[in-house]
Amino acid sequence: MSLTRVWPSLRTRLVSAAAAILVAGATVSMPQALAQNAGPASVADLADGLIEAVVNISTSQTTRGGRDAVPMPKLPEGSPFQDFFDEFFRNRDGDDSRPRKVQSLGSGFVIDAEEGIIVTNNHVIADADEIEANFSDGSKLKAELIGRDTKTDLAILKVDPTKKKLTAVSFGDSEKMRVGDWVLAIGNPFGLGGSVSIGIVSANNRDINSGPYDDYIQTDAAINRGNSGGPLFNMAGQVIGINTAIISPSGGSIGIGFSIPAKLAVNVIDQLREFGETRRGWLGVRIQPVTDDIAESLGMATAKGALVAGIVKDGPVDDGSVQPGDVIIRFDGQDIIDMRDLPRIVAESPVGKAVDVVIVRKGEESTVKVTLGRLEDGEQLASAETGGEGGDGGASVATATVLGMTIAELDDPARQRFEISEDVSGVVVTEVAPDSAAMEKGIAAGDVITEIAQESVSTPQQVMDRITALKEQGRKNALLMLASKSGELRFVTVRMN
């Protein structure tokens, strides 16, 4: 197609676009509208008002060296480099066991000028003996650690506000940030200090498997080593994220950076300031995802929520209000779409709060009232708890083969053979056939079947009866609750055809 044939159509589109801009508002000119579509013409004024609140965090840590810290390389016999390395390692200056200081750099920002409160990442100041805040005007202040949280990688520092006039920034609403919104990052990349970069929100609610509450803002604003702990601003100059991680094969920015959203950070920061530690809500359940197979087995139309795989003994719901096999689909008025939504929402809830929890149990929705415990108090219980769920008695067969598994009564010889805890009850799997549906789901000899389709089993006969009943109901999958030898519970779905 020739240029002369294209031009009339193109001219018509340009005239229409110009008319649309004029109709939208007589005060908006064509160049202004195009500039807005292309992004902000300059962020100089914005950066100028924020950069004083951003600090460079330098830390030092005293370590002891030693000849084992940098071992002499092993070289082939007669290597021409043998003499060189012998000379180097023999004549290293001083005693290798002497203490030496290791320094690192990061970023942070002032959130309270009167109190001298600074926010940064925990990994920036971890194991530091000395912490110093370096300001944009060249001044420096010693910083004291007020509190830290390893789960969200946040830390709170305090400097003496009487020694320097501080500038603070405030948090904004990270929930309002949309993909494509402009953001600005200020930090200390590679120790350069006071560096500004601009980009957009690339994605929200990113899970990068770095912790239990992953919910990152992804941005393409340049974030490099040393930016950790620095702020991510919206165009109103409010902190909507704390820059924490990057994905980079080279160690430099490739346009994939992650920030802790302000919504998650503010609650943690407030707790660290008030108590010096976090005080998170705790439900006392072990959970796993609701897959399509599990949803079908439970009679759910869609796969959503968090499947309760176990209850922590002496926890908030160890009263029967929530049971293994329940699916939590709503917590305190908030929908639980994905399993990872639940730990984050519960953790953000106050300790001792009474909340409504909507569960699906055997295909029926119901609401239970739960009073939350404290996560930090419950973690020791959760890690030590090894109990399983019991079952009914009675048996007519000692062993059976079903769904590719050989199963047997869980008697004393079986407990001894597979080293199964006395707290575990059910039917033991003694063998799994190769290429069977059970093996595909990771079931192994020594696992104990405690429930099938949310009904307890304690004999091989009960297992066979439940499988037969499910087939008669037209079910394609059987939902099994399995216990490990120590009693840790998990759910799996096994095809029955």
List the helices and strands and how they pair.
Elements: H1 3-24, H2 30-38, H3 44-50, E1 54-64, H4 82-90, E2 99-112, E3 117-121, H5 122-125, E4 130-134, E5 140-142, E6 144-149, E7 154-158, E8 182-187, E9 195-206, E10 216-219, E11 231-233, E12 239-246, E13 257-261, H6 262-275, E14 281-282, E15 285-289, H7 292-297, E16 306-311, E17 327-331, E18 334-335, H8 341-347, E19 354-361, E20 364-371, E21 373-374, H9 375-384, E22 399-402, E23 405-409, H10 412-418, E24 427-432, H11 437-440, E25 448-452, E26 455-456, H12 460-472, E27 477-483, E28 489-495
Antiparallel strand pairs: 1-2, 1-4, 2-3, 3-7, 4-5, 6-7, 8-9, 8-11, 9-10, 10-13, 11-12, 12-13, 14-21, 15-16, 16-17, 17-18, 17-19, 19-20, 22-23, 23-24, 24-25, 25-26, 25-27, 27-28
Quick rundown:
The chain has helices at residues 3-24, 30-38, 44-50, 82-90, 122-125, 262-275, 292-297, 341-347, 375-384, 412-418, 437-440, 460-472, and strands at residues 54-64, 99-112, 117-121, 130-134, 140-142, 144-149, 154-158, 182-187, 195-206, 216-219, 231-233, 239-246, 257-261, 281-282, 285-289, 306-311, 327-331, 334-335, 354-361, 364-371, 373-374, 399-402, 405-409, 427-432, 448-452, 455-456, 477-483, 489-495.
